[in-house]
């Protein structure tokens, strides 16, 4: 890690409620390196915890789609820890091993590229829409109208907003993890699908 981790215990009484809120969301696990990096500023850590907590637990997007999008963001941003955790959650959520292999290895679909949402590579039409949407949001930021429209037709307004917030949030997470080398993962390879 490029800066030392914050203490595992709150250094002041003022910090204690923030540590407790983050610990409550992580329970039964302890604080993770990401938390200990963020806790250099408890206000930032508290806001992050609230925002990511809502993304993780307060949206209506199916776990399979949400975790597929997060796993794809991890691949695109070379965020090893994010891939290792969220690819496993994508499998648990119902993405096939073949589909996850596709998410790991598929060519990036950029704005303006021809898009085929057919079922292939172990992914359904809807899962391909999510993958392409994640690609365009992550790599070029701008999304083709046709991609956004197809996704809106498949998921509806609320879930498109939730999925967009999820992809945006995990772009933030991955960029933070990689820039600071949180968890000392930058030099490691991402886990193979069979090893998740």
Automatic annotation (TrEMBL):
Annotated Gene3D superfamilies: AhpD-like
Tree of life domain: Eukaryota
InterPro entries tied to this protein: AhpD-like, CMD-like
GO molecular function, one term: peroxiredoxin activity
Domain Carboxymuconolactone decarboxylase-like span(s) in chain numbering: 44-107
Protein name in the entry: 4-carboxymuconolactone decarboxylase-like protein
């Amino acid at each position: 890690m490029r800066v030392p981790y914050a203490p595992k215990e709150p250094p002041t009484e003022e910090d204690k409620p923030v540590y407790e809120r983050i610990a409550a969301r992580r329970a039964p696990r302890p604080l993770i390196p990401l938390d200990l990096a963020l806790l250099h500023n408890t206000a930032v850590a508290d806001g992050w915890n609230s925002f990511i907590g809502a993304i993780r637990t307060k949206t209506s997007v199916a776990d399979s789609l949400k975790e597929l999008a997060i796993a794809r963001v991890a691949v695109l941003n070379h965020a090893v820890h994010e891939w290792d955790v969220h690819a496993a959650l994508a499998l648990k959520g119902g993405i096939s091993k073949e589909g996850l292999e596709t998410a790991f290895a598929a060519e990036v679909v950029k704005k303006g590229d021809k898009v085929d949402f057919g079922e292939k590579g172990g992914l359904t039409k809807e899962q391909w829409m999510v993958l392409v949407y994640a690609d365009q949001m992550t790599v070029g930021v701008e999304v083709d109208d046709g991609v956004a429209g197809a996704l809106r037709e498949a998921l509806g307004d609320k879930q498109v907003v939730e999925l967009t917030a999820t992809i945006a949030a995990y772009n933030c997470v991955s960029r933070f993890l990689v820039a600071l080398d949180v968890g000392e993962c930058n030099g490691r390879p991402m886990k193979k699908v069979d090893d998740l």
